Amino acid sequence: MARGDAPRDSYHLVGISFFILGLGTLLPWNFFITAIPYFQARLAGASNSTTRILSTNHTGPEDTFNFNNWVTLLSQLPLLLFTLLNSFLYQCVPETVRILGSLLAILLLFALTAALVKVDMSPGPFFSITMASVCFINSFSAVLQGSLFGQLGTMPSTYSTLFLSGQGLAGIFAALAMLLSMASGVDAQTSALGYFITPCVGILMSIMCYLSLPHLKFARYYLANKPSQAQAQELETKAELLQSDENGIPNSPQKVALTLDLDLEKEPESEPDEPQKPGKPSVFVVFQKIWLTALCLVLVFTVTLSVFPAITAMVTSSTSPGKWSQFFNPICCFLLFNIMDWLGRSLTSYFLWPDEDSRLLPLLVCLRFLFVPLFMLCHVPQRSRLPTLFPQDAYFITFMLLFAISNGYLVSLTMCLAPRQVLPHEREVAGALMTFFLALGLSCGASLSFLFKALL
C-alpha cells in the first residue's frame, strides 16, 4: 500500500525495471538446465564442439558425469548457504555493492561459459570448470535475489508481484532461446554460442535497470528513505486490521484480538508510540504457527527437484527419429514445465484453496510423490533396473502438465498462506523462515535426484 504523498511511477518504468531484474535473477539457473543436451554432448567426448551441440539423438545423450544431478545440486546448495548467512553478509556489505557486484560477476561467468563453446577441451576439465561456474553463478544469484527482495520490502506489494512474474518467465525465456537456437539453421557451434550470449544480454539489461533506479523519482522516494518506512508500515498495518483480506477471507481471530488491544491501549496522556509497538517476534513462536505450511513447501520442492531435470531431461520421444524427437525434450520438458508452473503460480491471484486451516493441503502435497515413479517409468533409454511402463509421449506430456501446474500452485499457495497464520508484526520473520525452508526443499530434492537416477 503506497503512501498518499508518494510520486507516480511514470510510464511504469520502475515496475518494468523490477520485472527485468526478476527475470535476471533466475536466468542463470534456467539457461544451464535447459542446455543439458549441450553439456552432455561435450562431456560424452564429442571431438569437436561443432557436433551434437544443442541436439539429441534418438536414444538421448549419455549422462556420463551425472551432469543433470550435479548441476541441480550445485545450483541449490549456494541458495541454502547464503540463506543461512544472509544476515551477516547483508550487514557487512553495502546493498549497492551486493547487487551490482553480483550482476557483474554473473555476467563475467556467463561470458566464460559462452567462450568455452569455442574451446576444444577434454571432458574432465570441462566438467570441473562448468561445475565451478555453476556454483559461483548461483552463489551470486542467491545474494542478488536476497538483496532485491530486501529492496522490494520497502515498496508497494505490486512491485513484488512484478518481480516474481519476471522470475516466473525466466524459464520460458530460456526454453524459447533453446528452441530458436536449434531451429536457426546455423551450424551447431554458432547456435550454442548465440544461446549463451542471450543471458549475457539479459544480465546487461538488468544492470542498466538497476543503475536507472536512483534517477527515477518513484524509486528514489521508497529506496532512499527506508528509515521512514516504519511509521508508514505501522499506519498501513492498522488500516489492514480493520479490513477483510484481499482474497475475500475474513480477518482471523488473531487480527481481531490485536486490533482490540491497540484500541484499548490508546490513552491521551500516554506516549503514542510505546504502547503500540509490538515486541520483537520470536522465531520459535512463529515457527510453531507455520511449521506445517513450511513442511509442505519443503516437500513440494523436494519432489520437484528430485526428478526435474535429473530424470525428466533423460526422457526421449518413443517415435522414430526426426524433427519431433529432436525438439521433444526442449518443448515437452522445459518449455511445458515453465509455462504450466507460471500458470499455477498465477492461479493464487484468483483463489486460495485449501485455506490455512485445512488439512487437505498436506494431502495434496504428499500425493505429488506419485510423480517420482511415474516419471521414472517413462521412456528413458539409459536404464538398467526399472521397466518402461509409459513409453508413449502422451503419458509424459500428461504427467508434466499435472506436475508443473501443481508445483507452481502449491509453492505460491504455501508462500501466501504463511503470512496469514501469524500476527502482522511477525510476517517478516515468517517470510525469512519460508525462504529458508524453500532453499532446504530445493537442496533435499537435488540430493535425492542421485538416488532416483541410480534406481533407474
Automatic annotation (TrEMBL):
Subcellular localization, as worded in the UniProt entry: Apical cell membrane; Basolateral cell membrane
Membrane-topology annotation of the record: Multi-pass membrane protein
Matching InterPro entries: ENT1/ENT2, Eqnu_transpt, MFS_trans_sf
Reactions accelerated catalytically: thymidine(in) = thymidine(out); uridine(out) = uridine(in); adenosine(in) = adenosine(out); cytidine(in) = cytidine(out)
Gene Ontology CC annotation, any one: basolateral plasma membrane
A Pfam family annotated for this UniProt entry: Nucleoside_tran
Transmembrane portions of the chain: 12-39, 70-90, 97-117, 129-150, 162-186, 192-213, 290-315, 327-348, 360-382, 394-417, 429-452
Coiled coil (UniProt feature): none
Major localisation: membrane
UniProt KW keywords: Cell membrane, Glycoprotein, Membrane, Phosphoprotein, Transmembrane, Transmembrane helix, Transport
A Gene Ontology biological process term: guanine transport
SUPFAM superfamilies tied to this protein: MFS general substrate transporter
GO terms assigned for molecular function: uridine transmembrane transporter activity
Function recorded in the entry: Bidirectional uniporter involved in the facilitative transport of nucleosides and nucleobases, and contributes to maintaining their cellular homeostasis. Functions as a Na(+)-independent, passive transporter. Involved in the transport of nucleosides such as inosine, adenosine, uridine, thymidine, cytidine and guanosine. Also able to transport purine nucleobases (hypoxanthine, adenine, guanine) and pyrimidine nucleobases (thymine, uracil). Involved in nucleoside transport at basolateral membrane of kidney cells, allowing liver absorption of nucleoside metabolites.
Protein family per UniProt: Belongs to the SLC29A/ENT transporter (TC 2.A.57) family.
Protein's name in the database: Equilibrative nucleoside transporter 2
Organism: Piliocolobus tephrosceles (Ugandan red Colobus)
